[in-house]
Amino acid sequence: MSTLPSPRDFFGFAPGEDRKLLSWAEITSYLEVVSAASPRVSRIDMGATTEGRPFYYLAISSPENLAHLDEYREIQAKLADPRRVTPEEAQGLVGRGKVVVLVTCSIHATEVGAAQMTPILVYEFAGSDDPEIQEILDNVIFLLVPSLNPDGLDLVVDWYKRTLNTRFEGTAPPVLYHKYAGHDNNRDWFMLNLVETRLVVEKIHNVWHPQIVLDLHEMRSDGFRMFLPPYVDPYDPNVDYILQQEINALGMHIMAELLSRGKPGVCCHSGFDAYTPARAYQHYHGGVRILSELASAKLASPVVISRDELKPAPDGRDPGQSTWAQPLPWKGGEWRLRDIIEYELIAVRACLLHAARWKRMWLWNFYDQARRWLQRREPPFAYIFPCDQRDPGALLELVEVLQRGLVEVEKAAERFTADGVTYPAGTLVVKIQQPYGRYAKTLLEIQRYPDIRHYTGGPPRPPYDVTGHTLPLAMGVKCVEVSSPFCCRTEPVPTQPGFSGRRSFGSVPELPPDLRCQTVHTGEVLEKAGAYWVALPPFENAAFRLVNRLLTSGVPVWRAPFAVREEEQAGRAGCKTYPPGTFFFPPGGLPEISNSGEASLSDLPEPLPHAAVGSESSPLPGPVKAAPWRGHLPHGCHRLSSPRVAVYKSHKPFPSEGWLRLVLERYRFAYSSVGNRDIRQGNLRERFDVLVVPSQPAGFIRKGNPVGTLPAEYTGGWEEPGKLAVLEFVEAGGTLIMLDRSCQWAVEELGVPVKNVLAGLDTNQFFCPGSILRVMVDPEHPVGFGLPTEAAVMFVGSCAWDLASTAPPSLKVVARYPEANPLLSGWLLGDELLHGKAAAVEYRLGAGRVILMGFEPHFRAQFTGTYKFLFNAIFLSVTGDGASAPAPQST
After folding, report:
1. What is the pLDDT, as a whole number, of residue 622?
2. Other C-beta atoms lying within 10 Å of the C-beta of residue 496
């Protein structure tokens, strides 16, 4: 170790010292020196972060183990898939293999301790002769991600240095510490929307198949000093029972080690559950996730907390009381970053030592849980995706999500019957009896969260995260659960590229052969004469992306506000009927976008089958392909322009705002972020057509951060000048879109004549902690174009409105809850309060409109099935006069 510089020598101070934080570049520079000098440490690059910083992990083990990493990866892969080995062969692999332990640090960037701890941790393992460390190095392959969020780490360090020695020292920055997700970035472990989570899954989880993941976090400073598993109930029932007990055993082992070192305030079995896959990818891939939560300091500044100032946990547990779950309470006092690092160093070492000493148990159980899953015979047998999808692109995205989680998706090569229903060749099938069938099942099935109370007859005990995560519902994809086995010849479905892949746009519906441009020069028309327009129905989300690209390229696009039918023409049968909201554009626009430097339409994945086109007897069937429209545009079509979108960005890091920007960027909606000053200065209509306000409390929109809590430029809200400016914007023809909790501001300040029937209710009266609910949609309203008559929305502390019996004609309902229990997946108490209530409304005000959506249509970029609510509302702001629809041009 003498040849390695210590962190203190390298940085000039020991990480963890008061009021000192290391940037990502500083941490990286030290780890580069150590990995270059020590044969025990190897740096492995994963790529770049969202903002372009280097993203990597360290492999730490004995030099001999590091020299044979390929061999150990292959052992892991074979144990992960019992179809590749016999039980006897597995026993031999267990004897030769090493336990793979992944430690991840500081995904939440204000939880600074773990990332700051890594130089010390790596220094110890890189050169120490300690027998326990040598035991770990010989038996464990230790993978360390020094920060899961390097961009946020630098943002927090910069903010801390800026506010150091001011009254704001130690405050959290008033912006998202991940560009798109903020605190929600650890809720992305199945959708993999974010660059960082996707890279960690692709480059570490799916390659190394770790038996243990230790995820280091921090929590509030005035409660317990540290949380470790056992978790509270409920577990997701798809988590193997052996894994559940390994979590308990390892968590208690780490806790015992901390207590043996005299560290007080360590608790377990409080507040944190293991229900959602959004935070626990490894639970469905053969390993355990150990969540560690340390009490925070004020970033790198100490806090002083007396015992009397300690507050109960959300589940009511008292951090000052000695119980089996916290046998040694903390007595209060000073709490520093150094304390956090000391606890974490002990925890990481204890975790690794347990893995080394119980190597055979960890490896055999890893294999055995997968083997037992492959032998299961209870239903369901499979999930089927019928061919007649309303939005085939959404199905491709869902297939991509499954495949990124190593789920095998197959396509039927022949007609088959399952549970008495016959399906055609080409139908997609996901069989549950496969190594990662647990992952497929939890993402595809309906969740029935148990009714858990604080005590008998008492209020419901809140879950740690949402209770419903059924992806087919969220994404608007037809999915059938099949109980009984069936026989069918199948073939693997190739890996699907989507928004998270390298290709820059997703599944735009492919045009039929007579609309494929055969020439390459910009502006040339189609080869086939007589195809005057392309008709593009609004069923697919990707249609909106294509329209935005056309508008950006200067191609005129028109939209029909009602269902339209082609003119009868001699020699043609089966004239098509198109739904309200269908887009029309000249075919000469296709080469404009195909020559813009991006993938052309011919590069897209082959589309899955669509339903048959309309007929006289069935005027509005399932999806209609993009197709030629021969004849004049229907009278009343509106010409669109590129909407000038403003997204309100307050001085509090609401994840809703970041996810909104991510979705808008994916679908090519240009936008500008506007803050309180922009709003208050007025003249909004001169600059924007639409203002979107992400979910946040009405009071925060109105008043913002109180004066004195942050630097002056980050305090205040819209206040009266902002209210008047927004009112002026709407009355002058602007569109105001309020999402989820923000809707209440428009009700209170602009007088939208609705009443939130859930306001002021306690949890015994109504409780819906993140569940998927059914709404009834008016698909003839412009905000409902392209949506089915029934849709699924995410409800998390959201709104439901009662309309006055004499509601004005300026108020229109876009979606409402049914006159029955709307629960589709999750947990809902007091459903009768929602019966028949409005979920989305439009209110005309002056020359403009206010659109209230009492849910987040873009929730965590997961609910692709409700994106069209948002997209339609945005385009509604730029709908022009339809009287001047042009006649077709002869070709």
Report:
1. 37
2. 20
